[in-house]
Design a protein that fits this description.
alpha+beta, 8-stranded antiparallel beta sheet, 5-stranded mixed beta sheet, 64 strands, about 30% helix, elongated
């Protein structure tokens, strides 16, 4: 509820103070603070925090009365009573000093920018602004001497209760007289363990002579006491350490006497604080703990509600370091308790024991060596106005080094600044949906809640599952800080109430008078235009939003009445536009539920109003009508005890799912001192009609839903997909964690039994303090504070350490807690229904993981036997979801290895789970199971499974996993594999302590970038044939890494030297064999792009050296046409487009040449243009010829087809994202023309107006190039193939790039090196068939083949020079292709047959053979 923010302040004291201060007490309105030292009394003002007046006792008075000890204010702040060390009570008059000018103000707030223009700031009534500090006159008026030394005092109504060491509780009037009739002696008070014993003692019915004993001398004297009007008695702490609650005698009857009740099991009390709102008594103990008691109303005994204990997680061994509890103070609204210790430090606790702040841990102090606590020991503390400041009197003993003087004590006045949740004073329903905090001059709201609610608010009403719209912002820690308008704060400090609307876009605040509101979308405050209207109203019962109206409960000062007002947000802030409804008593709480306003008044009545919006012009209005008035006098001990009020559609009987779409207000929830009461509608009687409307049903007697309730969350929205979450009631219970009242819907509602439970209350622990519940997102939101300590080294600075308090928003998933509780209670059906509606949440797999982990930790580490374990049920539950395998392995990775046998004895053998992952294709999860197997199984088993996973990773192109698996396999020590004992998997873990740690493979930890990383866990020497790599700045970062390898020799030399000392082992050779086999498979299927990714991601694979070895085996190309088209498809590289100029030039050249039949028929068919020719081809045989992709003509599937796929297919590459396609990579329909867009080409033909040559050339360059990343990769592969001597593939890549220089380099390499004859022959053969394919199917390549005609002739000469000596080799029959290489098309087989025939004929008969081959192909 309360969180410190910013720097603490050390308030500067006057130099006249010679003795250290030791006590501070505030007036009832908390505007003035009295600070005591041994001989001075100082009055401080609240805002600004400055010293007003100081009274110093004379030496004569000090000798007569003694030194000052403690003080008390009169309720009207007009007098002060000071207790002295010599049994005297001194009375001081506190009044305004009329002798001071400027309206009797000591300091005046001035307006103006420059000193000459400064003028006092006045309000509308001509009175100085509230920031001005009044002048106070302080003088002693009387004194009284008591019979013994004073131990403590207390102000009760119009009298003082003063305790003395002789056991008397003296009643002293403020006039200075003693009230002897009301004075009590401790020895006269009978004390029992409960009120039943006291009543039985009066009636003399106690058995065995048991009596209510009276206090004795050994019980001690009263050292602290407080009075509570809601409890109706005094809470006392005795010097013996005992504590009791005393009910004073009633003045109505003379026969009654005071009687007391012991606080049981409490023998070391040192401090006391009473919470009037929640009727709690908090006692501090010598052990440093706090014990909070409540009154059992049945027997009247004090029973322990909870304890305030610093856990070892927050601060180890706190009980021995902090000392006894020194001070305890509740906040003004009673929602938090400040507690300090004798040795230093303080903490802040919620009502029912949740730790909010502790300065023991964290960075509150830099002096970690000396165990110095921050702050220094606190002697006294007091809360400021509205709880925004905590004033502390701290003391510190200064030691004089190198001197003969004794250590002396110094004191400081310290002030902490706090933010508090708006729920603490204004628990309306809209404030429950946001993390919304208020300070004295600013508001804090979490931006994540705002964005989440605004994006999905409208969808929630439609009942759709739209929680994913905003869950990306749930984890944000950013705050939206809204400074409150200074124009409003100047006269209305401090802020008392604040409220935010449901969408999180509008806020409203109310201070001393009036109110103001702010809109986040325009960042403007809206204030009253008429300041008199602002001064005439005081918001007293809260403020909230209803649609676009501000609803508030206020007190009308001129009219002397209580009212409810509605102000429209869009209009001016003026009473003219407000809707006013009078109420009979002061409103303490208000809330809304859909179109109903509910208020709770000081007369313990609850009133319900219907609210209807009217779209009147020019401003909207509301119609408010009272519909019900309910008296709660019989159920509420005091109106102040009601801490929360809301209407809800929930009932104790959940009913069916269909009944919850839009139900009315079925129940009323009241939080009475932490006890949640539910008043349900009474449907037993007849429904009475009042005119045309039904009279609202009365409420039944209440039922207690829960106790120790601090906050409650319900929602009025409906979501049919998540009815169990939407119809649940969430309770924040402090140290008891949270509770959820969950509905249980039967599966078959028609056969549901009446004795089955309809709701269930499930408690669970939380690690944060809840401030909001996101129902659809299954998330709890809260806030947590931290500190950053700074060392101040400036000159003259007395305070060397200052912690900066920071605040961050926290969140926690709660779904796994509910699922665990339901499974524990054998309600697995309801757990499955609940989980199934949350599967779309992004963190649902984490929910399952938390569920399994918590149950495993609890049961596997339990020392007691578990006859009915929960783990099997949890595992069976998780098996119903597809995240099962992932959940199990992630849980195992985050659990100690010693707990794995217990886990896998339930979930099954990890080898079976690994194989199931492989079957499902979940390689990442399988890789994690491999880490489990490494620790549970022998190295040989883990190697076998790693090999299986490596094959699957290579096939599915999961390069990161393959890279890590290669490292993992090479890191396995061969000695471990050979000498491993044949033991079971589980026995190895069970006997792990008997084995040295060096024999086990160390655990492998995942890196941040990759899902899993297999570290090098042994110093195994191995040969790495890596390539020289260079950095490529053009590489797309989203692509898999592709190394620019130049050559292998430099790195191979280094490894050659290492190879002498470390020869490759059989395991390393086996791994290399796996990699080589996969590389052969890629080359056989023409997947050279995948081969590039493979070589780039597998470090230990030397691509160049392997290609050099395989250039005449796996790297040879059997079908150039298929390979060329495969490369185009893999790299998304467009087929070339023939420009209009090139087309006409080609026609002109072919007219004078002996072209092939196919070329002449394609280019010149009865003098038609290419467009008409294409249309004619389609019309002639639409099933035979298909024109596509801007220049490529594919024949329909037949025996003469080269490949079955067309260029319009989309190829999905898992290893890379799709590049930005250029214009040429756009898909073209089958009816597209050969030359591009039909309209553009036809217009150019008709007008005979060709494009300019430069523009046409630029267009061709853009159209014929693919993505830039593909070009980089192709040129890289070209360099690799040339370096390895794979000239066939190098020639194909150069042709795809249309790189004539690359073709020339390839031909030159073939001529200058010892190129095998069959390779040169295949290159020449492939070029021949590529030329033929160009003539028949893709004439876009025709200009390029014309440009490399010279290189083709050079290749012809190379083949001719070497053909005759190697004739016998060439005429050997072609071997059939292996399974890995695949079978080529019939045309490819025909091409190879023609090549054999071409090699055996004579040179002069070559043209005849070519003509024969062409005829055969075309036919």
């Amino acid at each position: 509820m309360y969180f410190p923010v910013g720097w603490p302040k050390y308030l500067k004291q006057s130099q006249n103070d010679s003795t250290p201060i030791h006590y501070i007490v505030s007036s009832c309105d908390r505007m003035f603070f009295a600070v005591l030292s041994a001989e001075t009394l100082t009055i401080w003002y609240s805002k600004p925090s400055i010293q007003i007046v100081t009274y110093t006792q004379s030496q004569k008075c000090q000798e007569e009365f003694g030194t000052y000890k403690v003080a008390e204010w009169k309720p009207d702040s007009s007098m002060l009573a000071i207790m002295t060390s010599k049994c005297h009570v001194l009375f001081f008059k506190v009044e305004i000093d009329v002798s001071v000018p400027n309206h009797h103000c000591l300091f005046v707030q001035m307006e103006g920018r420059h000193p000459p223009a400064f003028i006092p700031k006045y309000n509308i009534n001509g009175i100085l602004d509230s920031d001005s500090v009044p002048a106070i006159k302080l003088y002693q008026v009387s004194h009284i001497e008591l019979s013994a030394e004073i131990s403590c005092c207390l102000s009760v109504r119009d009298e003082l209760v003063v305790s003395t060491t002789d056991g008397y509780l003296n009643r002293v009037r403020w006039s200075g007289n003693k009230n002897d009739k009301a004075t009590l002696h401790l020895g006269d008070i009978p004390v029992s363990t409960d009120l039943q014993q006291f009543r039985a003692c009066e009636m003399r019915t106690l058995p065995n002579g048991i009596t209510a004993s009276k206090l004795s001398y050994d019980d001690g004297i009263v050292v602290q006491m407080e009075y509570s009007p809601t409890l109706g008695g005094y809470s006392l702490v005795l010097s013996s350490g005992k504590a009791l609650f005393v009910i004073p005698p009633s003045s109505r009857s003379e026969k009654t006497t005071a009687h007391g009740v012991w606080a049981q099991e409490l023998m070391s009390a040192t401090a006391l604080a009473v919470n009037h709102r929640y009727r709690l008594m908090a006692f501090g103990c010598r052990s440093g703990q706090g014990v909070v008691y409540m009154i059992d109303e049945a027997v009247g005994a004090l029973e322990i509600s909870h304890k305030l204990v610093i856990s070892s997680k927050d601060y180890p061994d706190a009980a021995h370091i902090v000392g006894a509890v020194q001070c305890m103070k509740w906040t003004p609204d009673g929602t938090a308790l400040a507690l300090s210790w004798r040795n230093g430090g303080f903490s802040l606790w919620s009502v029912f024991g949740s730790l909010l702040v502790s300065t023991l841990g964290g960075d509150y102090s830099l002096s970690s060596e000396s165990m110095k606590l921050y702050p220094s020991p606190i002697k006294s503390m007091e809360w400021g106005l509205e709880g925004y400041h905590l004033w502390m009197v701290t003391s510190h003993v200064e030691e004089q080094k190198d001197t003969i003087y004794e250590p002396f004590e110094t004191s400081q006045l310290l002030q902490f600044y706090f933010l508090k949740s708006a729920l603490s004073v204004n628990p309306c329903i809209s404030n429950h949906e946001h993390v919304f905090l208020q300070g004295e001059d600013k508001l804090y709201m979490s931006t994540g809640d705002t964005v989440s609610k605004t994006t999905s608010h409208s969808a929630h009403f439609r009942g759709s599952n739209s929680c994913l719209n905003g869950n990306a912002f749930i984890g944000t820690k950013q705050w939206q800080i809204i400074p409150i308008s200074h124009s409003y704060l100047a006269g209305n400090w401090p802020i008392r109430y604040s409220s935010v609307d449901r969408a999180g876009q509008c806020v409203a605040v109310a201070g001393k008078t009036g109110f103001a509101h702010y809109a986040l979308f325009n960042r403007k405050w809206k204030l009253f235009g008429n300041e008199m209207q602002e001064r005439d109203m005081v918001v007293s019962g809260g403020i909230t939003w209803w649609k676009d109206f501000i609803c508030l409960a206020c007190y009308n000062i001129p009219g002397q009445r209580d009212e409810i007002r509605f102000y429209p947000r869009g209009s001016k802030l003026d009473n003219t536009f407000s809707q006013v409804t009078r109420v009979p008593a002061q409103v303490l709480l208000l809330n809304t539920f859909r179109d109903i306003l509910i208020i709770f008044c000081a007369d313990s009545h609850v009133m319900l109003f219907s609210v209807e919006r009217k779209n009147t012009q020019p401003n909207p209005s509301v119609v408010v009508a009272k519909i019900q008035d309910v008296s709660l006098n019989n159920y509420i001990p005091h109106p102040l005890c009601v801490a929360g009020l809301t209407l809800t559609s929930l009932t104790s009987e959940s009913g069916s799912r269909q009944q919850h779409t839009w139900r009315e207000a079925e129940s009323m929830l009241l939080n009475v001192s932490g006890k949640l009461l539910m008043f349900q509608r009474d449907r037993s009687g007849p429904q009475i009609k009042d005119g045309n409307h039904k009279r609202p049903l009365p409420f039944c007697s209440p039922s207690v839903v829960a106790t120790s309730v601090e906050n409650l969350w319900t929602t009025s929205r409906a979501n049919l997909g998540k009815m169990q979450l939407m119809e649940a009631l969430w309770l924040g219970c402090g140290a008891h964690g949270m509770k959820v009242w969950l509905p249980l819907y039967p599966r078959n509602e028609a056969k549901a039994h009446s004795f089955m439970s309809k709701r269930i209350m499930l408690p669970f622990k939380v690690d944060i303090y809840p401030l909001a519940v996101l129902f659809e997102d299954a998330v709890i939101l809260g806030a947590a504070c931290d500190a950053i300590s700074y060392n101040i080294t400036s000159a003259g600075e007395e305070h060397a350490e200052l912690p900066l308090c920071t605040l961050e928003r926290t969140s926690q998933i709660y779904l796994h807690h509910i699922l665990r509780q339901l499974l524990r209670r054998n309600l697995g059906v309801h757990a499955f229904d609940l989980a199934r509606c949350c599967t779309e949440l992004p963190y649902f797999p984490h929910v399952l993981e938390l569920l399994l982990h918590e149950v495993l930790e609890a049961e596997a580490t339990s020392k007691d036997p578990i006859p009915d374990p929960l783990l099997p049920r949890v595992v069976a539950f998780i098996e119903e979801f597809p995240e099962y395998l992932q959940t199990v392995v992630h849980c195992a990775r985050k659990t100690e290895v010693a707990l794995w046998p217990y886990l896998f004895s339930t979930v099954g053998n990890p080898k079976d789970l690994f194989e199931e992952c492989l079957m499902n294709g979940n390689l990442t999860t399988a890789a994690t199971y491999l880490i489990i197997l490494q620790n549970l199984e022998m190295p040989m088993v883990s190697r076998q499974h790693a090999t299986l996973l490596l094959d699957s990773a290579l096939d599915k192109e999961a390069w990161e996993i393959a890279h890590d698996l290669v490292r993992f396999l090479k890191a396995i020590d061969p000695n471990d594999v050979e000498s491993a004992a044949m033991t079971g998997a589980m026995s190895r873990v069970a006997s792990a302590s008997t084995y040295p740690s060096a024999t086990l493979s160390p655990p492998l930890t995942p890196t941040d970038n990759a899902p899993f990383n297999y570290s090098n866990v042994s110093n195994v020497g191995r040969v790495r044939t890596s390539s020289i790599t260079t950095f490529d700045p053009m590489r797309d970062v989203t692509k898999p890494k592709l190394k620019m390898t130049a050559s292998d020799p430099l790195s191979s030399k280094k490894h050659h030297l290492k190879g002498k000392a470390h020869e490759p082992t059989a395991d390393q050779v086996y791994i290399d064999m796996i990699l080589c086999r996969h590389a052969r498979k890629l080359l056989a299927s023409n997947r050279i792009r995948t081969l590039g990714y493979f070589s780039a991601n597998v470090d230990d694979f030397g691509t160049v050296s392997w290609l050099r070895r395989e250039r005449v085996r796996a790297a040879k190309v059997e079908d150039f046409v298929t390979a060329l088209r495969d490369v185009h498809q893999q790299f998304e590289w467009p087929m070339p487009i023939l420009s209009y100029t090139a087309y006409h030039q080609l026609r002109k050249n072919l007219a004078y040449s002996t072209s092939s039949l196919a070329s002449s028929s394609l280019l010149d068919d009865d003098g038609q243009s290419p467009v008409s020719n294409g249309d004619k081809c389609e019309a002639r045989n639409p099933d035979t010829i298909t024109i596509n992709n801007l220049g490529s003509i594919n024949s329909a599937p037949s025996e003469s087809s080269l490949i079955p796929s067309t260029a319009d297919e989309v190829f999905l590459k898992p290893q890379a994202q799709k590049e930005d396609s250029s214009v040429t990579t756009l898909e073209v329909s089958d009816s597209s023309s050969l030359l591009g867009e039909f309209e553009v080409v036809s217009d150019a033909i008709l007008s005979n107006d060709l494009l300019p040559p430069d523009l046409e050339q630029l267009t061709q360059e853009v159209a014929n190039k693919g993505p830039q990343q593909s070009e980089i990769e192709l040129r890289y592969l070209l360099q690799i193939f040339l370096e390895a001597g794979c000239l066939e593939w190098a020639l194909i890549v150069a042709i795809v790039l249309r790189d004539s220089v690359g073709v020339m380099r390839t031909i030159n390499t073939a001529s200058l090196t010892d190129t095998p004859l069959d390779m040169a022959g295949r290159m020449r053969e492939g070029l021949s068939y590529l030329e033929l394919w160009t003539d028949t199917e893709c004439i876009g390549y025709k200009p390029f083949f014309t440009s490399i005609k010279t290189q083709i002739l050079v290749l012809d000469k190379i083949v001719e020079q070497t053909s005759r000596p190697s004739l016998e080799v060439e005429i050997t029959p072609t071997e059939p292709l292996s399974v890995e290489e695949g079978n080529s098309s019939p045309v490819a087989q025909t091409m190879r047959t023609d090549t054999v025939e071409l090699a055996v004929v004579k040179e002069d008969d070559a043209p005849e053979v070519e003509q024969k081959g062409s005829d055969c192909l075309i036919s």
